[in-house]
Amino acid sequence: MANLNAIAFLTRTRRPGRVDLTDIVSWAWLILGTLAVLVPVVWAGISSLKPEAEITRFPPTFLPRAAEEVTVPGYDKPLSLWRAEVNGETKEMAMIRRIGLKAQLVDPKNPGPPVSVNVKDITPVQTLTIATQNYSDPLTRFDFLTFLKNSVFVTFVATVLTLIINAMAAFALSKYRFRGDKAIFVLIISTLMIPLTVVMVPAYLVIVGVGLVDNLWGVIVPTLATPTGVFLLRQYMLTIPDELIEAARVDAASEFRIFWRIILPLTAPALAVLAIFSVLWRWNDFLWPLIVLSSRENFTLQVGLNAFQGEFSVQWHYILAMTFLSLAPVTVVFLFLQKYITTGIAGTGMK
């Protein structure tokens, strides 16, 4: 039954039994949008399994492959295998070295004097190879687990405090009537037009003044109150009937009890949407933690990944592997809370 419903939904058209131009445009737009989002993620995931040399190879290969190597008597290190035409015969030869446009090859089965072959006439012998060391090395040799722990702490604490602070502000602006309430709300929303770079220097000076430099709390505290969160929650709380609050007050419920036992449970869809936004903001934040943090043991995941980029080389195999691994927590949060997104966002405009 579920499969039939899914098929009926996917084949549904604007006019029953007739395919309209708008249906074709809609499907083309959805397919192109899906590919635009999905292809880079799939490519990054597959590239994270490639050996280091294969990531920069041109033209690139889709599947992770690596050159076969063979041990040749008389040589200390294993040599890579290449297919080359020698004396009119195609052979698998081991490369000793490459000098300009010439490659020095030797027969691995019958080592003899090296043969010089043009590099345009040789092709590598490759096999399907999964480079698991791209994931294991950062976990064992580097501080990836420390970076991950710091990011989880910052994201979790900042998200919980953001939900509480923004919910309290939204409750006051939606359910209380006082002089200047509309002006305060407009002032909060107007801060959305202020670029982040304008407030970054003053915020850093405040962090220096209170002694939170190179501290994870210095990353968390300045980002707790967000105008987006206040607007989202206030608009949703406007849909909650005031009669519920009045009835609770008649029963001698305190204002905090009303907020905690009535408002927050009814605002769960909007809170879930804000939680998803907050997790995405904190988990992917790079610039602010880079400014505040200076000790390696305090680096978050995004700042820590920057350590794999040196002055003369970039360790793309580690960056791709750890970047792809860092997508897992955000994906899990989104899968658990995705059903609230449509409900929460749609509810913000009902009143």
Automatic annotation (TrEMBL):
Residues 148-337 form the ABC transmembrane type-1 domain. The keyword Nucleus does not apply. The chain crosses the membrane at residues 24-46, 152-173, 185-210, 216-237, 258-281, 316-337. It is found in: Cell membrane. It holds the Pfam family BPD_transp_1. This is Alpha-1,4-digalacturonate transport system permease protein. Belongs to the binding-protein-dependent transport system permease family. Keywords: Cell membrane, Membrane, Transmembrane, Transmembrane helix, Transport. The keyword Transmembrane helix applies. PROSITE patterns: ABC_TM1. It is a multi-pass membrane protein.
